[in-house]
Amino acid sequence: MQGARYAMVLNDYLLPSENIRLASDDEVEYGDKKYRIVITDKRFILYARRGTVFKSDDVVSERLQAIHGFKYSEKGTLFRTATISIITNAKMEIRGSPDRMKPLFHTLQSTIGA
């Protein structure tokens, strides 16, 4: 799903007067699933549209006020994986390639400012 159609589906999940600040084109892994990241002025959202015939939405969100900080780490020698830990009362970890995750980490820090 690209561009305007992606934004139209996301609008179904926005709160009144909530505005999108950032919507990633790249997917990240959370748990064993792939998601796109959406940051609004109120929430950090992981969003995926699943299914081939019967479509369904998969949404995970966290209030920005609940985010205390971020941690970036890389591991592996031949096949490196980067992890961004989003620190709230619990810990949310998203994973991907270092080439995609490092710029995303900087973007998250500057956009959310935690």
Q: Could you walk me through the main structural features you see in this protein, from its secondary elements to its overall organization?
A:
This protein has 114 residues and is α+β, with helices and mostly antiparallel strands. It has a single domain, classed as Pleckstrin-homology domain (PH domain)/Phosphotyrosine-binding domain (PTB) (PH-domain like), CATH 2.30.29.30. The chain contains 2 helices and 7 strands. The protein has helices at residues 3-11, 98-112, and strands at residues 20-30, 33-40, 43-50, 56-63, 69-75, 81-87, 91-96. The strands form 2 sheets. A 4-stranded antiparallel β-sheet has the order 1-2-3-4, covered by helices on one side. It has a 3-stranded antiparallel β-sheet with strand order 5-6-7, with helices on one face. β5 and β6 form a beta hairpin. The chain is globular. The termini are far apart. This is YokE-like PH domain-containing protein. It comes from Nitrososphaera viennensis EN76.
